[in-house]
Amino acid sequence: GAAPAEAVVTFHPDHRTVAIRFDETLLDAGLRHDINLPYECRNGGCGQCKCTVLSGNVDPGLYQPNALSAEERAAGKVLLCCATALGDVEIEYAAPAVPSAIRQYTAHVVTMERLTHDVMRVMLKLPHGQQISFRAGQYINIILDDGQRRAFSFANPPHQPDLIELQIRLMPGGRFTTHVFEHMKEDDAVQFEGPLGDFSLRESERPIVFVAGATGFAPVKSMVEDAFHRGLKRPIYLYWGVRKLADLYLPDLPQRWARDHENFHFIPVLSDATPEDNWSGRTGLVHEAILEDFPDLRGKEIYACGSVKMVEAIFPSLKNQGAEEGMCFSDAFT
Ligand code: FES
Fold first, then answer.
1. What CATH code would you report for 103-196?
2. Looking at this predicted complex, what is its ipTM?
3. Residues lining ligand 1, CB < 6 A?
4. Model pTM?
5. β-strands 89-92, 50-55 pairing
6. Which of 66, 136, 189, 283 is deepest in the core (most CB within 10 A)?
7. Which CATH class is domain 208-333?
8. Cα(241)–Cα(152) distance, integer angstroms
9. Which of 40, 64, 77, 84 to mutate to test the pocket of ligand 1 (most atoms within 8 A of CB)?
């Protein structure tokens, strides 16, 4: 006969049994039945939804190796947001102390502005009377028609909660970013969920070194504007690494911050400046500029935002020069 379209999944320790379709994740099935499951990125990246399979077979799905190690997988752990049921299964999970504050929203595009050849600023507005409260450094997941998600940091500070600023970089061949550059227009509806992530400024008096690569500038903008708004007097250094001058979008903004706030310093670094760029500023890799400027990085808080490749490349050499384990934070995108 035909294969059954559903199985059941039992969640322990509360022993709740719910129906699950073979084409949905364990997380989606549980949330649909209001089970207080732990999760965050819903994309196999954060590891928050890790749990144990007690019995039954699951397909673990695709996820990032740092979210679930091979040892954990061998010990029967799976990520709820990636795993699907291959039959009836029993799962053990740890409920979060505070039920998730992540909500879904539908916003509308109010303005779109090309900041440079491959970066679009998209301003989203929530329906009248709705706001989203978040911390500077967090991000949202845009939800595509088929349920896939794309992560973007808030570029605006939290004290502007009715508009959401995104800085979206065109990824060659990228389905969503191509849509943004070719078809998205004002008034379009955008579905998203958030706020997500635990990247945010720690409370201390230590000097702050921001390292941004390309659109890693977006969360930094949110955090710096938030720091100014809260009157923080900590020294802030922003190293922004891009390839060519044309990649430096909104360059006047950090220059203005530096004029208006004596604790703020802006150091743009170009890795592939062309003769036409006529660039007399810093060149090379962004972390090399930091190593030159700070012979000893002890006591500095370092916040790196950029590609996984950049973030993985910079921390070992910064740590060699005194950067301390508990003071290095990162927000990486693929
Ligand atoms: Fe992030 Fe599952 S929710 S890995």
1. 2.40.30.10
2. 0.99
3. 39-42, 44-49, 67, 79, 81
4. 0.81
5. antiparallel
6. 136
7. alpha beta
8. 19
9. 40
